[in-house]
Amino acid sequence: MGIEGEVDSGMARHGSSILGYPRIGPRRELKRALDSYWHGDGTRKEILEVGRELQENLWRELSATGLTQVPGNTFSFYDHVLDNALLFGAVPERFRPLVDELDPLDFYFMMCRGRADFPPLELVRWFGSNYHYRQPELDEHTSFHLNSDALLDEFDRAMSEGVELRPVVLGPVSLLLLSKVAPTSEQDGFSPLALLDPLLEQYKRLFEQLAKRGATCVQLDEPSFTEDRTADELAALKRAYHVLSHAPLRPRILVTGPYGHFGAALPILAASKIEALGLDLVNGRMTPDELAAVPGLKRKRIYAGVVDGRNVWKVDRRRTLDYLHSLAAVAPDLVVSTSSSLLHVPYDLLVEYDIPGDVADRLAFAKQKVGEVVSLAKALTSGTEEKWRRPPVSVHFKQRHTVRARLNALTAEHRIRAPYEERRVAQQKRLALPPVPATTLGSFPQSAEARTARYELGQGRLSYAEYAALIEAEIESTIRLQEDIGLDVLVHGEHERNDMVQYFAELLEGFATTHFGWVQSYGSRCARPPILYGDIVRPRPMTVEWTAFAQSLTEKPVKGIVTGPVTMLARSYVRIDQPRHETADQLALAIRDEISDLEKAGIAIIQVDEPAIRELLPLRQDGRAEYLDWSVDAFRLATGGAQPETQIHTHLTYSGQKSVVDAIERLDADVTAIVATRSISWVLGALEDRALTHGVGPGVYESRSARIPDIDELDELLTEAAESVDLDRLWANPDGGLKSRRSWQVEPSLRNLVAAARRLRRRAVATAESSERL
Q: Residue 595: what pLDDT?
């Protein structure tokens, strides 16, 4: 492979590279292999062969595209953050007794998925994206040792075929900052950064091994420094790259900052002895003059991240090439690159056959983005070719007069409901729920028959009447199961839905959806993010048919479940021609209309899921207040038309940040279910401080884990919550939907949940009776 930045015939030869690539396989080969192995149908040999094949196909494909440097060590069987922790031997203390008991692969999956006696590592959102990572756990006893066999084996295999990989490793400071203090830690105030020096020794050992094998460059990702950081954290970054850059034997060091601006970290890295910097120039764009003003930056090789790694719109060719020419004038050693790994976009646009032509012409998936990177680098090297001067494809986003007129007519009153206490009385009169009602958050496991029927309907091989009969049978089975378990508020199970966002996108005008546009969320879990390209119109009700049918089967209340406007926005590829808050309001109006139709159908409880309100929070403090204002406004627009006696629920991911807690309160939902199983303390604190004054359900078991919680565990968590909130405001629920679980896991878990809620009620009654006797 050529080396970027070589001089060729007196002209700078600008390189091309990317920071990472999708890893689940073009046809989700990894997902199928994982699911087969976990369910006992596949063997260890088979899954390892699939992993090896995906890994090799990737670097062979990328090498053939003309990239001048190919990233390596980007494949993972589950999560790259955990892989990097294990690369340096950081096994959490609580898992160490199992190291010798389990096969290494099973041990790895057990940390990711857990079992009855070992909860999994916490699942955490990855820098505002739709990806989640398993959070490493460190304590004062953590000792590091290098386990580089897999990384070196891939490097050697590629070299044997004439491909020199640039190994990608999570940077040492980000690895520590992305970890949490293990629950077994005995040291008050322990910080993972205290482990920096011993960790750096292992990085130096890795560098030496790579250099001896002929590696010329290693990529260290430091995404944590695209967030606001303290002086101590910046000092740790400075120390880390002083130590690593002075390693006695090493490749060149490329430090990347995907997902935003490096901020105060940029001058620190520019002043260090590292050779190269990767800059996100999409989300953290800097002018050439701003870059030139950073001392030391001109002497670095700059990987210019001008192709968006997180959205699917084509690059503006003329504007981007002009920017690169200006950039090359102040940073002559320039490599054209992506702003982040392409992990966040689908593989290939060309396999899609249903995206409208005028939309498809403006899109680029991972393969096409690699092509954009290579073409930009060639055009930059050879001078501006005439084809790059042609007008780009017109960026036209469909607008509708009726939608615009409705938005312009909005007033503050459209976002305000009756006072909470008034609603609370009306809802209790209508619903007559017991203290600590037990419920779930929407989805139940889907049968193979339901998934097949949905596919056959889409292919035209099944009539709608046949499809509806099958889905109704699934719904009835789910209702009967919930009644038998003893849940107080039921759900229809979402058997008709493929995904909480895609389902609605397929029923709304203004979205395009894909057939093969799978993107990894975590492990084997994938989604197909829709493409939001125009003004939003709801042609007809989207959930009423199924929810109303479920309600007709039972006397207990059945929740209507809709996805909220901010989550629809966050989990789609969003149009770029208008501010996001305008798009969010368009989505909110569609959801407002859906809520109105659910009410007309007699549905008394409606859950508007908004997990992404926390997820979309800007990485830096600047802009957070504005974002929270418009995201809260969008939710309140969606729910503002609901009648007082209609109970509005929402479902959020956790966050202990005061600004987000304040935003949760401002949503004015009657009941808020929160993903808090592994971090429940902040929820309890917020309740105790009266920061959350409405109904709340602190999710008391992890829906993404295969383990079945016992009654005592659930009872303990609910009892803790009951110390901070009145029982008539407390709900018992899992922390998410149950679609990814097996029925044999769901039923005992929910029975234990109901038993724990009833225990709490009985104790409350006994305490009240005892007080009356006294």
A: 98
pLDDT-derived band at 229 (thresholds 50, 70, 90) equals very high
Q: Containing H/E element for 590?
A: helix 580-600
Q: Nearest CA to 517 among 348, 281, 268?
A: 348
Q: Map residue 472 onto helix, strand or coil.
A: helix
For residue 154, the SS3 value is helix
Sign of dihedral through CA atoms 132, 134, 139, 143? negative
Amino acid type, 694: H
Count other C-beta atoms under 10 Å from residue 107's C-beta.
16
Tokens linked to 57: 């196909």
In this prediction, residues 638-656 reach a mean pLDDT of 88
The DSSP bridge partners found for residue 168 are 219
> Which run of H or E residues covers position 275?
none
Q: What are the φ/ψ torsions at residue 769 (nearest 5 degrees)?
A: -65, -40
Neighbours of 351 (CB within 10 A): 15
Enter the tokens of residue 554: 């039972």
162: left (phi over 0), alpha (psi -120 to 50) or beta: left
In angstroms, rounded to a whole number, what is the distance separating the alpha carbons of residues 153 and 87?
Answer: 13
CA dist 755 and 764 (Å) reads: 14
Q: With pLDDT > 90 as the criterion, what percentage of the chain qualifies?
A: 77
Q: Beta-strand (E) ranges in 447-597?
A: 509-512, 519-522, 525-527, 531-537, 559-563, 573-574
Structure-token pair, residue 403? 């939608």
Contact 555, 520 (CB under 8 A): no
First-to-last alpha carbon distance for the chain, in angstroms, is 85
Q: How far apart are CA 256 and CA 242, in angstroms?
A: 16
Tokens of 341: 């790994």
Centroid of chain to Cα 244: 31
The Cβ of residue 526 has, within 10 Å, a number of other Cβ atoms equal to: 18
Radius of gyration of the chain measured on its C-alpha atoms: 27
Return the bridge partners of 218, or none.
Answer: 253
Q: Residues 591, 638: contact at Cβ < 8 Å?
A: yes
- Residue 631, token pair as written in the block: 């995201």
